């Protein structure tokens, strides 16, 4: 049974299903700055999303923060990045 559990864990790692992953990213304009939020999830049904956020002076810098999160918390699927610059 231990061998089966070990193989399941290895298979999940290979599929990118273990650990915390970046699931969604949002960037909002706040005055003359940009607020970037990355939502992280551990893949366990019913668990809470975790959030990492930062305020950056430019949209490119905010995107850079999201890209850093994507490298730190890789996801095996596409991650939606929502950019809202309609507000004032």
The fraction of residues in strands falls at 35-45%
Q: Tell me the radius of gyration.
A: 16 Å
Helix content: 25-40%
**Which spans of ≥5 residues are poorly predicted at pLDDT below 50?**
none
Report how far the terminal alpha carbons are from each other: 58 Å
Structural class: alpha+beta
Average pLDDT: 83
Number of helices: 2
Question: From N to C, what is the helix and strand string?
Answer: HEEEHE
Spatial strand arrangement across the major sheet: 3-2-1-4
What's the story with the biggest beta sheet?
Answer: 4 strands, mixed
Beta-strand segment tally: 4
What general form does the structure show? elongated
Short description:
By secondary structure, the protein is an alpha+beta fold.
How would you portray this structure in words?
The protein is of the alpha+beta class and about 90 residues long. The chain is about 30% helix and about 35% strand. The chain has 2 helices and 4 strands; from the N terminus they run αβββαβ. A 4-stranded mixed β-sheet has the order 3-2-1-4, with helices on one face. It is elongated and about 55 Å long. The termini are far apart. The model has no long low-confidence stretch (mean pLDDT about 85).
């Amino acid at each position: 049974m231990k061998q089966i559990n070990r193989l399941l864990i290895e298979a999940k790692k290979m599929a990118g299903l273990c650990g915390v992953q970046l699931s969604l990213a949002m960037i909002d304009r706040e005055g003359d700055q940009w607020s970037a939020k990355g939502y992280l999830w551990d893949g366990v049904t019913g668990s809470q999303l975790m959030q990492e956020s930062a305020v950056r002076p430019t949209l490119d810098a905010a995107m850079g923060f999201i890209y850093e999160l994507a490298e730190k918390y890789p996801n095996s699927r596409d991650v939606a990045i929502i950019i809202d610059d309609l507000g004032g």
